[in-house]
Amino acid sequence: MIRISVLLALVAVPVCAQNLTFDPSLTENCMVASSDSFAMQGCIGKSATHCSLETPEGISTAVMQSCFELEMSYWDQRLNDSYQRFMSGLKLEDENNPFPGKSPKSPALLQMQRSWITFRDAKCEFADVLWGRNNAGALARAHCLMTETAMQTIHLETSETGR
């Protein structure tokens, strides 16, 4: 009987994720309305917060974690798009560089991004450990991944556009 209860409890979490009320347009509209990177930082978590508050199951660790993960996916897609645009522009700039001794920029972007991924993963793993590798740790890790991915997205987008 205990095994069945545990199994049902494990199955119930993914069912909850199917009923999430996630709207990335809240974050997107905030980003469009922001004039600089500082204002853009205020957009981080808008959709996740709304998701947590509006999901029918109510606020719970599982719902909050799922909402953070959904917003992290939004930022990750945006990050990948920005990185690809930025890299394409830098490669073109490197190819057309009239100064032969000048360091190319595209390898530096690649190295920076690789280093950032290592840093982000270590930082968010530490958040999980710090909170005890339990539900709170998983929540802290999900929040960290969302926030760090969003911050890197903003960094790349503002570096790319000069905004």
How much of the residues is beta strand, in percent? under 5%
Question: From N to C, what is the helix and strand string?
Answer: HHHHHHH
Report how far the terminal alpha carbons are from each other. Answer: 60 Å
The helix content, as a percent range, equals over 70%
Can you summarize the main beta sheet? none
Rough outline: globular
* Residue runs with pLDDT of under 50 for 5 or more positions: 1-17
Number of strand segments:
0
How many domains make up the coordinates? 1
**What does the radius of gyration come to?**
19 Å
| Average of per-residue pLDDT values | 88
Structural class by SSE content: mainly alpha
Keywords: Signal
Pfam families: LprI
Organism: Roseovarius pelagicus
InterPro entries: LprI-like_N (IPR009739)
Helix/strand layout:
Elements: H1 2-18, H2 25-33, H3 37-41, H4 46-54, H5 61-95, H6 106-130, H7 135-161
Helix pairs in contact: 4-5, 5-7, 6-7
Describe the structure.
- Keywords: Signal.
- The protein has 163 residues and is mainly α.
- The chain has one domain (2-161).
- It contains 7 helices and no strands.
- It is globular, with a radius of gyration of 19 Å.
- The model is unreliable at 1-17 (pLDDT under 50).
Compose a concise summary of this entry.
Residues 59-153 form the Lysozyme inhibitor LprI-like N-terminal domain. The protein is mainly α and 163 residues long. The chain has 7 helices and no strands.
Which features would summarize this protein structure in a list?
163 residues, mainly alpha, 7 helices, 78% helix
